[in-house]
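Pasting as-is:
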Amino acid sequence: MPSFVTSPESAPHSARQDIRTIGLIGLGHCTSHFHHMLLPPLFPVFIREFGFSYTELGLLLTVFFVISGVGQALAGFVVDRHGARPVLYGAMVCYVAASLATAAAQGYGGLMLAAALAGLGNAPMHPANFTILNRRVSTPRLGHAFSTHGLSGNLGWALGPVFLIGLTTLTGSWRIAALCAALLGAGVLALMLWRRDDLDDHHARHRAQVKALAASGPSEHPLAFLKQPAVWLCFAFFLWSAAALGAIQSFASPALNQMYGLTDTTTAFVVTGYMLCGAVGMFIGGFVVNRVARLERTIAVSIGMSVIMLLLSASGQLPPWLAALSVVLAGFGTGLANPSRDMLIKRAAPPGATGRVYGTVYAGLDTGLALAAPAFGLLMDHGLPAAVFAGAAGSLALGAASATIVGQRITMRG
């Protein structure tokens, strides 16, 4: 049984080489999160043009998350067997196809196809991205790589609605906006093909490590890693963290409106502020992760700050502006924890199973987001807006507990 310790997969590259790899992976991750938002910003347009209900449109997101979650776990095996770079190219092709399907959609079937293609593109992104980062970026800069990866995803979420709504308004056609999204994805793919050497995860040192690992003894079954409790604890961490994120993204605005009487215009900036604070936290977390040995403690303290902020908002006793600010500041703690979270998964991954482990645990992200919408929506339907913030705080606390147990297991095995 492999021990859960860090094995140095990273090639000793120069700073310039590392920066190129980090930049390309960050750009790809930004494009991935951009396509998370390919359809939702256009929902009001689809309602006007096709007469769809919100239930029908919500089903499109369910299709996206189900395909992405199942595919993410499976994609890790493909990455470990055939390499991350070709899988990453395939993901980008799916995003371009999803944008083209959106532009050509004549009804619900066309939009369902677009959602399915976007989910298929999202499925391999995390196992492919983290495999390339772990194998190509030098260890001293790996924390910054994880930080940039998370930061770029947040920027993609922020860019998607602005890009699609802005172009729809400017051109008067949502189809043109979708075509422009396809061009954007194609441009990123072209850049990745041009700089393909910077994404090569089968470089000479890695091949030597694989050969040495094979010579050390009989190989384990490809599913052996699933027996490790640390893998499922990491999955649980992602599930609970994603549930909290889904609660804030979907229901923080109406919950603050009902509890504190804040206007829709004001509350609309709360989610944006939450994501921006998360981005700042990720940037700082990239420096913290290289200076702290017990990563689970960083995660516990960071998320603990977020839990306190959300519980304060849930109390209903704050001035309205302070309640909104508390929700915004909660994003900083969750962002600060992200680089340590990704490094913790690296330490928990058995040698040679990076793609499979990242694919499995990141499937928890899709699972949490898929479950959060109906669960927290039900709380809102029953007139319990405070439960949105209290539930998000509880979800984060459970996630922090999972990370703490993982860290303790790694320490004992190390």
